[in-house]
Amino acid sequence: MSRAETTQALGRLDDLTRRLRAECPWDREQDEKSIVPHTVEEAYELADAANAGDDAKMLDELGDVLFQVVFLSLLLEERGAGDLEQVAEHVRQKLVHRHPHIFGETEVADADEVLRNWDQIKANEPGRERGIFGEVPENLPALLHARKLQRRAKSAGAQPVADDRDAAFEEVGDLLFNAVSLARRLKIDPELALRSASARYRADVEAGAATD
């Protein structure tokens, strides 16, 4: 598809979204708080399609996620806080800023160094919450929350990469499944237990950073 065809397709989706917002009773009633749960659900459905390697399903789910972006951008536009063009330009500028090894003079050795630079650049951007765990959403699912805390804490050093990622993927899945099974037998909520462990981990890391 050419650039012109892509632009036209996005324009048609924008037109349709505006019509739904104006004419559909359900769409007229929505706001950010009512729409975001659907956005999260669509993101999980996209992740499921990606994990399954189902390209046709990915195409479908990507469309659903894109509609969420267009709809939420329209809500911003309605109150003069932004629009789809500003959303696209903002993320473009942000990606340029966070890839100095592409758009600047910075040199990197590998993907781990890219990630470390990304975290450092992001932490120093205006308006960002300070600290190792600044802007880690508390409402992430417990597993994602734990992973993000660990990645932030370890961003100063390279992480080992498994030689066989497929085997590692299955091994980690089995480990998590067995952990949930153990929690069930002990009558412990695994979500709450992991959140508690993440909170202890965060407190320990922050206490260590404060004494450095």
From TrEMBL:
It comes from the Bacteria. Pfam families: MazG. Residues 30-103 form the NTP pyrophosphohydrolase MazG-like domain. InterPro entries: MazG-like_dom, NTP-PPase_MazG-like_N, NTP_PyrPHydrolase_MazG. This is Nucleoside triphosphate pyrophosphohydrolase. It comes from Svornostia abyssi.
